[in-house]
Write a structure and sequence with these properties.
Layout lengths: L20 H14 L12 H8 L3 H13 L3 E4 L3 E4 L31 E2 L12 H11 L17 H14 L9 E4 L2 H12 L5 E5 L3 H9 L4 E7 L2 E2 L1 H5 L5 E4 L13 H12 L5 E5 L24 E6 L11 E4 L5 H7 L9 H12 L2 H24 L6 E3 L7 E7 L4 H10 L2 E2 L1 E2 L13 E7 L8 H12 L7
Parallel strand pairs: 3-14, 5-6, 5-8, 8-9, 9-10
Antiparallel strand pairs: 1-2, 4-11, 6-7, 10-11, 12-13, 13-16, 15-16
Helix pairs in contact: 1-3, 2-3, 4-11, 5-11, 6-7, 12-14
């Protein structure tokens, strides 16, 4: 591969109404990569040189390059610079301006209550906008809404599906209409519908490690599910192609539990894999894409062309509350007739009052304001957690994903994951071993892996709790 330097790279910038400049730079460079204007192996200008060319700050270019790095469009070589990666034929469809744990068993029974719970499913309950939610509930729960006592549309309330379509279009680049959206009471309720929809002969590829609940759903529904390994670029698509699967369940924006972002090259490979045969589909679980702390959210696969092969699933469990029990999926138009035929007599599993409360919460801007506030809350917690772990860097490593609400730690120790989980439990701290998320765990001698969800821990308490955790594990290096 011949390397060439593009020292005069120019991207258009609208300084009036074009939005954040670093996003414009990121999109400009990304588009040049995907359309071939910047060939594979091209060396990009240094951050300083590019900033001078565009008359912007070095920080602005650094943010743009950081986003491109996170999504795998470019790579960074020490003391050499930034280079264009091979991303294949990856078309990105921008949003329209007007369109719409299963835990390994501990050595001894843990206490009934933990003082500190690092479970990945925990959220920050102190920041919930009760006043705004109460306002919507009062407007919905009224004699004038008596019709909501009756069964509604089996796909979910049209008002909520309209708001979700608008939100997905603008925030995730998902191209859909309200008619493609199905409302359900959680991923575990929607996935069996998907399994029936795709038929009994479908073979599924699943990420390993990945969601234990999803693995259980495939087993419970007597479907063959083949584990495919995950590395720091996400699911191994070449290995996927060897499985004989015709449906792939993936978490591309923030792989669970590793935190990896599916690279641009593998996104292209995955979409190409789905297009090779007429019965292939991708099930994209976008479970926590709202929370990214460096750059902008990674675009959804569904919005990157070939959306007729992607079933998009997401939930309000992370963004609002797990107890709301509202999730949704976006079906490709080609599957809608079959869905209507199979589930014509089904009723929506989510109460109509709850759907209308959420629709109003989204319609008046409360949801967007809540997300903006929670990004700041979780960013503080992420920063507090990584700072608290820094003194232990000789013994504890993690993938700095700058996203989501959990970290996977690699702890250098002679103890097993189960022993670390048990020691933490005795100290009143709940953690989970990463091995419990793997179908085929491969132990690494001298290394134990732990998943820490930081959503439910107050940021001011995180440093002290991490010290307690490291002390009970006898991990050296903490600064008192």
């Amino acid at each position: 591969m011949t390397e060439r330097m593009d020292s005069m790279l120019i991207v258009p910038i609208d300084r009036e109404d074009g939005g954040p400049i670093y996003v414009q730079i990121y999109e400009g460079v990304r588009n040049k990569i995907t359309d071939g204007s910047l060939p594979v192996g091209t060396k990009l200008p240094s951050k300083r040189k590019f900033a001078e060319t565009l008359s912007v700050s070095n920080t602005t270019v650094e943010l743009a390059y950081g986003q491109l790095l996170a999504e795998g469009y470019i790579s960074s070589r020490p003391r050499s610079g930034f280079f264009v990666q091979d991303v294949g034929e990856l078309a990105y469809a921008p949003p329209s301006a007007s369109g719409p744990p299963v835990q390994s068993g501990p050595l001894q029974p843990p206490p009934a209550d933990y003082e500190y719970d690092f479970s990945p499913g925990r959220i920050d309950t102190e920041s919930f906008p009760f006043d705004a939610w109460r306002k919507q509930a009062k407007s919905v729960i009224d004699e004038s809404s008596a019709d909501l006592l009756l069964l509604g549309h089996p796909h979910g309330e049209p008002e909520l599906r309209q708001e979700i379509a608008r939100y997905l279009n603008h925030s995730r680049g998902v191209a859909c209409t309200p008619e493609q959206i199905i409302i359900g009471s959680g991923t575990e309720q929607l996935m069996p519908l998907v399994i029936r929809l795709l038929g009994p002969d479908t073979i599924y590829a699943i990420e390993d490690p990945g969601y234990p609940l999803t693995h259980h759903i495939f087993r419970r529904n007597d479907r063959r599910a083949i584990p495919v390994p995950v590395d720091n670029e996400g699911i191994d698509v070449l290995r996927l192609g060897e499985t004989g699967a015709n449906a792939a369940y993936v978490t591309p924006a923030h792989q669970f539990p590793t935190g990896a972002v599916l690279s641009a090259h593998r996104r292209s490979q995955l979409l190409a894999w789905a297009s090779e045969k007429p019965d292939r589909y991708i099930i994209e679980d976008d479970y926590d894409s709202e929370f990214r702390y460096g750059g902008i959210p990674v675009p959804a696969l569904q919005g990157m062309g070939r959306s007729d092969r992607v079933l998009y699933i997401s939930t309000f469990s992370k963004s609002l509350m797990p107890s709301l029990r509202i999730a949704y999926m976006v079906l490709p138009p080609r599957l809608l007739p079959r869905y209507s035929e199979l589930f014509a007599h089904y009723a929506s599993t989510v109460p109509r009052f709850d759907q209308h409360i959420l629709a109003g919460f989204m319609r008046d801007g409360s949801f967007s304001r809540h997300l903006n506030r929670m990004r700041k809350v979780y960013r503080r917690k992420y920063t507090a957690l990584t700072a608290a772990l820094a003194p232990y860097s000789n013994s504890v490593r993690y993938e700095d994903s700058q996203a989501g609400m959990h970290l996977r730690l690699s702890v250098r120790t002679d103890r097993t994951e189960e022993e670390l989980v048990a020691l933490a439990a005795r100290a009143g701290i709940r953690v989970q071993g990463a091995g419990s998320y793997s179908i085929s765990p491969v132990p690494r001698e001298g290394i134990a892996e732990i998943v820490l969800g930081f959503g439910g821990i107050p940021d001011k308490r995180i440093p002290a709790v991490i010290r307690m955790l490291m002390d009970c594990w006898s991990v050296p290096g903490g600064i008192r």
